[in-house]
Specification:
Blueprint: H1 7-11, E1 14-15, E2 19-27, E3 37-42, E4 46-48, E5 64-70, E6 73-78, E7 83-88, E8 94-100, E9 106-112, E10 115-120, E11 125-130, E12 135-141, E13 145-152, E14 155-162, E15 168-178, E16 181-189, E17 194-200, E18 203-211, E19 217-225, E20 231-238, E21 242-249, E22 252-257, E23 260-263, E24 282-287, E25 292-296, E26 303-308, E27 314-320, E28 324-333, E29 339-340, E30 345-346, E31 349-351, E32 363-369, E33 373-381, E34 386-395, E35 398-404, E36 417-425, E37 428-436
Antiparallel strand pairs: 1-29, 2-3, 2-28, 3-4, 5-6, 6-7, 7-8, 9-10, 10-11, 11-12, 13-14, 14-15, 15-16, 17-18, 18-19, 19-20, 21-22, 22-23, 24-25, 25-26, 26-27, 29-30, 31-32, 32-35, 33-34, 33-36, 36-37
Length: 438
């Protein structure tokens, strides 16, 4: 008999303190100058920064390449300083540690099973960092210079921007864990110079830049169908109007283009009739599920970040450091414990709203524990049928999160519709409703 979601669990209402939304902005700085900077934005208006590091006696470093949030921590890739900077987000953004990566040339980071995988040009390869011990426990050598990296369903995907002799490359690698070690299992040929990757509905979108003999910049977009391994390519030519970011906005893939952001068509052309925004000097772009963030730069401080809604209305303009190039989004609730209003029971854990919601590829399900406990987190459909078991393991006190990719226990994509995330801790059950779109 299939497991059923209890009616009591569905209808129980919880009094929850309001969550806070944070945006972290990494400003790259100027090459060979230690003026990279980190900024924290609460909501869309309260900006502070630089955070922790300052330009005089404690600089963040040279070339802030990328940043990601994982398990209540902020990971900052410092390319030319060859380091990984880690901040704890459990009680505000506080400095935790520096991982030195000498002569590595780190580019990007992704996470699988409490390991961080860091692409590095100077190895060339991918470093495996055990987040329990904070030690490098493996190096995955790659035939080429790996750039952007993402993780999905236990696999890694990385773009190969250049060959080991620094000549242009045109490959994307899929890696899978074999006997506990990641190894390439598929190679895809795309437009030359692949960098940013975006996965949506089992399709991997790839942004590329390449150059001619006089350093004119050209760009292209590729799409890898991961079910059929078919690759669709679109060479956009000279990149006067193109910038270097992809984002999923309202179920459409957008590219930064011609002073704003514009959706891609099914054939990977630009839908010029639906451009959002009109700005000079676009350096970066990201979407937090509600608002569009556009980094503008003239390569000298201060540079700006503009926040728009999806209709193109300007919400705010922020002054930040040089070259705002990367964004990370994080939702943190008030750490107060909450009460089950129906029974008046003080609880010692909290299942927070998943984000994004609705979602169409992956959604993050955060939770808070007052004490170390065994956590069972499962997904059910409207009929109360078990769809997926996400975790059945011990977690320490504090904030944690797991990701659901819309797949059932057999690895098949679930139908679009309403689902419930159920968390069980010491016999107590809390539930959140989610909307899955396809």
């Amino acid at each position: 008999m299939k497991q059923k979601l209890t009616l009591l669990a569905i209808i129980t209402i919880f009094q929850i303190s309001l969550a806070q939304n944070f945006t972290y902005i990494l400003c790259e700085g100027n090459f060979n100058t230690t003026n990279a900077s980190l900024w924290q934005l609460t909501g869309t208006s309260e900006l502070i920064g630089p955070v922790h590091w300052n330009f005089t006696d404690n600089p963040l470093g040279d070339v802030g390449q990328n940043l990601k949030v994982y398990q209540e921590k902020l990971f900052i890739i410092m390319n030319n300083s060859n380091s990984l900077e880690v901040m704890s987000l459990s009680n505000g953004a506080t400095y935790e540690r520096t991982i030195d990566l000498p002569f590595a040339g780190p580019r990007d980071i992704a996470f699988v099973n409490n390991h961080a995988y860091i692409t590095c040009w100077y190895l060339p390869g991918i470093l495996s960092l055990d987040l329990n011990t904070w030690q490098i426990d493996d190096t995955i050598f790659i035939n080429g210079l790996p750039d952007n990296i993402i993780a999905d369903d236990g696999k890694l995907y990385t773009s190969i921007a250049m060959n080991t002799d620094w000549s242009p490359a045109d490959k994307v690698l899929a890696l899978e864990s074999v006997s506990g070690e990641f190894t390439p299992i598929d190679t895809f040929t795309v437009i030359t110079g692949p960098n940013q990757l975006l996965l949506y509905e089992n399709k991997l979108y790839v942004l590329s830049n390449y150059y001619d003999d006089t350093w004119n910049t050209y760009t292209g977009t590729s799409c890898i169908n991961l079910e059929t391994n078919q690759v669709t390519k679109r060479d956009h030519g000279l990149s006067f109007n193109f910038c270097d970011d992809l984002a999923l906005i309202n179920d459409k893939i957008y590219r930064s283009y011609n002073g704003g952001v514009a959706p891609l068509t099914d054939s990977l052309t630009i839908d010029i009739n639906k451009i959002i925004g009109n700005y000079a000097g676009i350096y970066s772009m990201a979407f937090d599920g509600k608002n569009i963030f556009i980094g503008l730069s003239d390569y000298s401080a201060p540079d700006q970040v503009v926040i728009l809604d999806t209709l193109g209305n300007e919400i705010n303009t922020l002054n930040v450091g040089v070259c705002p190039g990367s964004f990370a989004f994080y939702q943190q609730p008030n750490a107060e414990i909450f009460t089950d209003e129906k029974n008046g029971i003080l609880s010692d854990f909290l299942l927070m709203p998943n984000y994004p919601n609705p979602f169409n590829s992956n959604t993050i399900i955060p939770f808070y524990l007052k004490n170390t406990n065994l956590v069972q987190l499962t997904i059910y459909n409207l009929k109360g049928e078990l769809i997926a078991k996400l975790t059945d393991d011990y977690f320490t006190s504090g904030y944690h999160s797991v990701t659901w990719n819309g797949r059932d226990q057999s690895g098949r994509l679930s139908p679009a519709g309403v689902y419930f995330a159920e968390i069980r801790v010491r016999g107590q059950v809390h539930v959140r409703k989610m909307m899955y779109l396809k």
